[in-house]
Amino acid sequence: xxxxxxxxxxxxxxxxxxxxxxxxxxxxxxxxxxxxxxxxxxxxxxxxxxxxxxxxxxxxxxxxxxxxxxxxxxxxxxxxxxxxxxxxxxxxxxxxxxxxxxxxxxxxxxxxxxxxxxxxxxxxxxxxxxxxxxxxxxxxxxxxxxxxxxxxxxxxxxxxxxxxxxxxxxxxxxxxxxxxxxxxxxxxxxxxxxxxxxxxxxxxxxxxxxxxxxxxxxxxxxxxxxxxxxxxxxxxxxxxxxxxxxxxxxxxxxxxxxxxxxxxxxxxxxxxxxxxxxxxxxxxxxxxxxxxxxxxxxxxxxxxxxxxxxxxxxxxxxxxxxxxxxxxxxxxxxxxxxxxxxxxxxxxxxxxxxxxxxxxxxxxxxxxxxxxxxxxxxxxxxxxxxxxxx
Length: 390
Hints:
Layout: H1 10-22, H2 27-38, E1 46-50, H3 56-64, E2 70-74, H4 80-86, H5 111-124, E3 131-134, H6 141-146, E4 155-161, E5 169-170, E6 175-176, H7 182-191, E7 192-203, E8 207-208, H8 226-251, E9 270-271, H9 272-281, E10 284-286, E11 304-308, E12 315-321, H10 326-337, H11 343-346, H12 350-367, E13 376-387
Parallel strand pairs: 1-2, 1-4, 2-3, 4-7, 8-9
Antiparallel strand pairs: 5-6, 7-13, 10-13, 11-12, 12-13
Helix pairs in contact: 1-10, 2-3, 8-12, 10-12
C-alpha cells in the first residue's frame, strides 16, 4: 500500500511545490506569518515545525527570530530533502554530501529558482547547527521520544502550518478521520514543555466555520458566511474533476478513473467543537486571543480581511483572490492529488500530466464562466492551544 506521504517526493518538492510557491505570492507563507504573529518565537526557544515539507515555513521561523535555540523539523515525505538543502545539511547537487544527490538537469528548474535556492542556502547557513530533521510521520514522535532520539519536554512551541489535517490519516486503516490526530497530539504533549503552545492553521477546505460571517464593514464579503466564500472553490473543483476524467479517458484510456472520495476526504474535517474536544482530551486548551489586529503583519500583494471568531478562539483570515488563481492550484497540485491513485496514472510523464490538467482547467473555465466572476477568498483559521497540567 502506498503511503499518503509517498506523493511528497523529491521531484514534486522541487518542481511542483517549492519552485512555484517560492517565486510567487504565496498564501501559505502569508498565513504562516499570521501564525507567528499570534504566537511569536522568543530568544533561546526551541520550536518544532510539523509537516515542514520543503522548509518554506522553517525559513520563515528562522527569519522571525535569528536568536532562537533550535528548530526540530518533522516530515515523512522525501520533500524534506529540499529543506535539508536549504539549511546546508546536505547539498542535493553534490554527490559527496547527499545520498539523494542528482544532477540539476534531472529536474525542470528555472535559473531564477536555482539562484533563489542558493541565496536561501547562504542566508540560512547560521541556522545549520540550530536545525535538526526527522523524516518520520508525526504519529511516531512518541516512539522517538521513548528511544531518546527526540528530547521530551524540550519544545516551547509546536507549529503545524497548514499540516494539521495530515495528522488525521490512519495509513493502516486507509482512512482519514478527525479522531486520528490523537496519536500525534500525544507526541506533541510529550515534546512540549509545561505551558508550551501548539500553534496551527487550516484552510476553509479542512475547517468548517459553520455560520460564522465576515463582519468587516466595506468588505466585498460583508455579512457573507465564511463557508460560502470558500465553497466556491469546492464547487469549481468538482466540475474540474469531471472534466479531467473525461479528458483522461479521451487521451489516455477509456478505463481510467479518479475516485473523488480519495481526494476530498479532508473537506470540513474539523470544526471548533471537535477540535476543542480532541485537544481537551489530550491535555490542551484553546487560548482566547487578545491581540490588537492593527499590529497584524501586512500581506504582500494580496488583500486580506481579518477578524477574530465569535468565541475568540481563532484568527479568521480571508485572502481575497480571483478564481483564475485556481489554475495554479489544479495544475500545480494536480500531479500530487490526482495522479497517485493508480499505476496507470502514475506512469503518465509529468509534462503530459501538466498538459492534461491545463486542458481540463480550460474546459472548466469556459463551461462555468459564471463561477469565475463570483467573489472568492482563501479562508484560514489559526489557533493557539496551551499544554495544561494533567
